[in-house]
Amino acid sequence: MTDAVNSLVETIRAAAEAGRGLRLRGGGTKDFYGQALHGAVLDTRGHAGIVAYEPTELVVTVRGGTRLTELEATLAEKGQMLPFEPPHFGADATIGGAVAAGLSGPRRQSAGALRDFVLGVRILDGRGQDLTFGGQVMKNVAGYDVSRLIAGSMGTLGLILEVSLKVLPIPVTEATLQLELPQDKAIEIMNRWGGKPLPVSATAWTDGDLWVRLSGAEAAVRAAREKIGGEVVDDAGAAAFWTALREHTEPFFRDAVPLWRVSVPSTTAALEVPGEQLIEWGGSLRWLTTGADARVIRELAARAGGHATLFRGGDKAETGVFHPLAPAVARIHANLKREFDPHGVLNRGRMYPEF
Amino acid sequence: MNVRIAGIDADRQAKVAARLGQLLPEASVLHHQEDTRPYECDGLSAYRELPMVVALPASEGEVQAVLKVCNDLNVKVIARGAGTGLSGGALPSREGVLLSTAKMGKIIHVDPVARVARVQPGVRNLSITEAAAPYGLYFAPDPSSQIACTIGGNVAENAGGVHCLKYGLTVHNVMRVRGVTIAGEVIELGSEALDAAGYDLLALAVGSEGMLMVITEVTVRLVPKPELARCILAAYDDVEKAGNAVADVIAAGIIPAGLEMMDQPATRAVEEFVHANYPLDAKAILLCESDGTPEEVAEEIERMTEVLRKSGATEIRVSRDEAERLKFWAGRKAAFPAVGRISPDYYCMDGTIPRKRLGEMLHAIARLEKKYRLRCPNVFHAGDGNLHPLILFDANDPDELHRTEQFAAEVLELSVAYGGTVTGEHGVGIEKINQMCVQFSPEELEMFRGVKRAFDPPGLLNPDKNIPTLRRCAEYGKMHVHRGQLPHPELPRF
Q: Given this model, what pLDDT does residue B484 score?
């Protein structure tokens, strides 16, 4: 065990003994996300670096404190990428933080979510135990899939020491098209494309325009461009757009407070609430900036079969950041928290105030 | 003392059957031996045990009723789909109720626009694809038993198939699972959106081998059927070269739709059986498939061919039409029954290793063949590093059986030592439960038990499988397939 790990273990053990909460923190770029922060900061960045990366295995194993930019640059040198395009929300974002937050970017609609690419984790639980689940291989059904449980658990179940991720080749060709369409037509057409063998890797509707990114073999992208039509966006403009979308620097997101993230089935009709909307993921992700009552938004999302997160701003304590859970499911959450962190050390209340 | 038949406590059996009989139709509760016998084993037929009672609920409400009674009477519950599993996950207990989902086989809804299908757990894997076919869609996971296995079982085992590298496992293709806890409460995990609030409990449910909940409904993701698929057959005069070729394909930035490997003993066994016209002088062959639009496939096949040629292939054939492509695959898919013909018994392993260790593993297996004086043909899902070495033996010779078990144990331990796992897609079940002790530390195993407690506090859902007790970790398991006779001989196995 390295000194960095030893020191993390010691801190967690001491906190467990004293019944003190700790606030796990990488680059702090996602401090805004989740419920209020409690406890002394435990900085994870001392445990950084790429442990193993062999491009032909399509797997990278990386320490939690490693900067996301460093990891992505290492992969890009070998023509590979994190297929789920995680948002950074700042230059200091770490891979541990990205996995804990569990957020995925524009390519999620075609490639899959962050959790889909997690092959294994090494964590410290709330007792300071060093535990490894999953591994570095594509197929692994030994034991429960704890690695994927850790993804998106907001640091409440364990401190991520290492994570092994499946990576993929950067597509040979990409092209972005822009079509002028009203919201309902955009939702309809995105779903229609989804049912066709088209190489659509990302979509976004904002301010009356539908943006479509095609990724894949050159011949396939060329053929799809013909079928879809619209205006071709130049490469620099396209790259800038998808990055700004992922990083929430697009005009829509500026001053968008409170910002709601509403996740619904892709065919859900345009949400009828006052305010502005931006759509991603083929219709499955709706960003809302609205002054509407939280209960109204949650009700709308639930009725569509989805859920609503108060992503930025608003009254977190009053509203709750994450969608309320059904009682039986909430009980399983509390039970899991108790198994992983019996003394309530790790990011207590960051996800739901109850645990 | 109570009367026991086949180890079953007759009084308790009568009591449990009576309680269930009050809630389910008469024909849905079985306890006479002649009725329960068909449930005594799953695809791992070396292990058999008569269940105390078999319950066949036809609805979620009936599943709730069964679980409430079992919780109340402190009776174990083992869920079962089609019983095609290869690791004994659905092995019954003489002290337990075997809950079969056979009467829950309805496709509830196919939504071609949203590209999802909502189905009951007893629906067969292939039926989903058949129901989606008119819309140009299909369900991607294709375990070899797909004509018989059920979606409930696929979710419980996180089933794979030959297209996982590109299309993922069951966990990547299931959006939502509805089920009942041991307390009889209905829970929904995941959603028909792309994510759900809270912890990713869906990920825990997939591959949980029936130990957390009983599944009553599943929403699967459907994907557009590729317009075209073509396959390359490449021959090598050295297994290590073939192993390296797999890495070369990936290094070239290609993700094949399927990438399979067979060594010479396997191709020879297969050729006699199905006449796939494989090159028999090759030490190993690769099957490398491309799918997509005709333009994409043409481009990819060209790139794959170039890479395979550079990697030292002695012969390359590209399927000219669908019939030829299916012929290439026919041999691979007949590997298990073909091996079953040349040996009285075989033992199938399911380890997964990093691809770069393929060559090393093959050499190690060759060494172990000499050490234990047993033959071991190899078939691999090479793209995923998932190995199915098949040790040939005769179970009537106790010494051979013993040597086989030691051989298999060494291979599985090597898989772990190479940074892999003891099971890639068949599951732990009862078969590999002892090898779990090799792969995980006592603290990690205890955390698995904690996960189970979080869902199933009394520990009644399929206990004794998947996660070994510490005491158990001293022993070693036994499994073999007798005379190639799987309980479902009609199913292809790969």
A: 36
Q: Does A219 touch chain B (CB under 8 A)?
A: yes
Mean pLDDT of A102-111: 98
Place of tokens 């809804």: B109
What CA–CA distances, in Å, run from B398 to B336, B365, B371, B409? Answer: 23, 22, 17, 17
Query: For residue A324, which residues of chain B lie inside 8 Å, CB to CB?
Result: 197
Q: Where in chain B is the domain with CATH 3.30.465.10?
A: 107-224
Nearest CA in chain B to A57: B355
From B15's Cα to the closest Cα of chain A, the distance in A is: 29
Q: Is B132 near chain A, with CB under 8 Å?
A: no
Q: Which residues of A touch B136 (CB under 8 A)?
A: 195-197
* Token pair belonging to B463: 């206990």
pLDDT digits (tens, 9 = 90+) for B118-175: 999 999 999 999 999 999 999 999 988 899 999 999 999 999 988 898 999 999 999 9
pLDDT at B477 over 60: no
- Architecture of the structural domain at B107-224: 2-Layer Sandwich (3.30)
Rg (C-alpha) for chain B, rounded Å, is 23
The dihedral built from the CA positions of residue B193, A337, A92 and A276, taken in this order, carries a sign that is positive
CATH 3.30.43.10 domain locations along chain B: 4-100
For the domain with range B4-100, which CATH number is right: 2.60.120.200, 3.30.43.10, 3.90.1720.10, 3.40.50.2300?
Answer: 3.30.43.10
ipTM over cut 0.85: yes
- Residue B96: strand pairing partners: B76
CATH of domain B228-333: 3.30.70.2190
- Cis amide bond preceding A258, omega within 30: yes
Indicate yes or no: CB of A137 within 8 angstroms of CB of B194.
no
Q: Do A54 and B432 touch (CB under 8 A)?
A: no
**Cβ partners under 8 Å of residue A205, min gap 6:** A181, A183, A186, A187, A190, A211, A278, A279
Give the residue among B105, B449, B103, B167 at the shortest CA–CA distance from A197.
B167
Chain B residue with CA closest to A222: the answer is: B295
Nearest CB to A139: which of B164, B226, B428? B164
Domain B337-482 grouped into CATH 3.30.70.2740: yes
Kindly report, as residue ranges, where domains of CATH 3.30.70.2190 are found in chain B: 228-333
> Closest residue of B to A81, CA-based?
B253
Average pLDDT for A152-160: 98
Dihedral in degrees, nearest 10, Cα atoms A132, A89, A6, A157: -50
Contact A112 B186 (CB under 8 A): no
Interface of A with B in 262-301 (CB under 8 A): 263-267, 281, 284-285
The verdict on a CB contact (< 8 Å) between A113 and B381 is: no
Question: At B423, phi and psi to the nearest 5?
Answer: -145, 125
What pLDDT score does B268 carry? 94
- Give φ, ψ of B23 to 5 degrees: -110, -25
- Would you say residue B1 has pLDDT above 60? no
